[in-house]
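quick one, two chains, predict together pls
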Amino acid sequence: MDEQTLINEALHGELDAFNRLVLAYQDLAFNVAYRMLGDEDSASDAVQNAFISAYRNLRTYRGGSFKAWVMRMVTNGCYDELRRQKRRPTVPLEPINPSDGEEIDSAEWLAADDPSPEESLEQAELEHALQHCLENLPLEFRSVVVLVDVQGMDYDEVSKSVHTPLGTVKSRLARARLKLRDCLQQFQELLPPQFRLDGGAR
Amino acid sequence: MSKTLTDKDWIMISAYLDNALSHTEAEKIKIRLEQEPSFKKGFDEIAYTRRMLRSLPQKRAPRNFTLSPTKTKAPIRTPWLQPALKYVSIAMAVMTVVLFVSPYFFFGMPAAVSQANETGTLSMEKSSDDTGNLESPAIIYWNPILGMGGGGGTPDDSVTFAGGRGGGPVSTIPITESVDAPGETETPALAATPLAEEEVPSLAAVPPTAEASSLATPQVTGEASTQEDNAGDLSTLILGLPEPEYRGTVMETDQASKSTAQETLSLRILLVFITGGIALLSGIIAFILRKR
């Protein structure tokens, strides 16, 4: 069943049809939210709220890229989540072991699933540096650079997603990349050689 | 070197990397990349940044975000409820405080209590008058001559020094002694002061006996002018003087007015509890709504 048919059924109140659309876009939506918010729990909340909002406001969808329309809901959900966090800042605690309900006091939960510890560490350092730089960007720049560079969306889709003219998207993207370049230069010494600007990554 | 590039240059480089330029614009960029090292360096830096961002791993959603029928129901929106309850709580709290402190603030003591006390005192006076009992409550005079310090007293009952409010001695004149055994009454030295005697007219509400009148009248008349002079100086009084128009009269009262005063007091306390309860309840609900 194609996307448009699912949308039409969802418009007639078919929740199952809408849920199939959710399954198709949830990974993309979660990635965008995670890169914008930097926290899995907050990203999950934002995505769930975005899909609820999308279902309730499905009649405002006027055709075109459904992906861009969903991403618009997600970015709006991220803005709401960031505003909520600003109003009520919280301090994250260490994760709780679901088996016994006690806090995990070792750093074991930090370990990734990658086979090589060195690669995992390098990847983690790179990701940490990038995420840190992303979070230091202004929100309107962050949403654009995440959608274009992290998710690979084209300018038109991003323009519709963030409800901003195409020229503004181009401008924001260029300025965001410049800011990220400046930020990443602070991490050059910490990054693995192949990820350095003067190293093998070029 | 990258400082030489303008904002437009950066936008063009960025768009060139994303293949978002027209063919003509792309050709111009290619030429500049070959001819301008600073332009080439800026291009490399932005390309590197873009490549780093694209190297970020894609995460899988930790769970399915599919919706259930309960999730899709629109919540009942009452955005006005929490602020309304908050203001109601504040208003009720203020009203509670006002109701609680207003009698003290405006009258010095709860009006109803004051009225009840006054009623009780007058009833006692009337009762004494009816039975012909000559015993009257001792009148305590504040003696400003001896000034501050106070405390203690003489063994003699007729002269007592009392403390309180850092004050000086006071004289107590038991009326019954002056009536029954005038010769035994030791006229205190303090009684010679005009202020000690000017309180006598306050006893006018109690009709004296013939003997008492013969003893008390000269003092009253003799010091009448002094009393009038000091009538406005209420700071020297402890028990207080009646208003001039009430002096020498017996004030009638009844149980009904007393019960009315008690009812007023009860009503005020009830209002304090009601407004306080509403303030507390609405405050708690507003707090819960805000936390949701």
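The radius of gyration of chain A is 19 Å.
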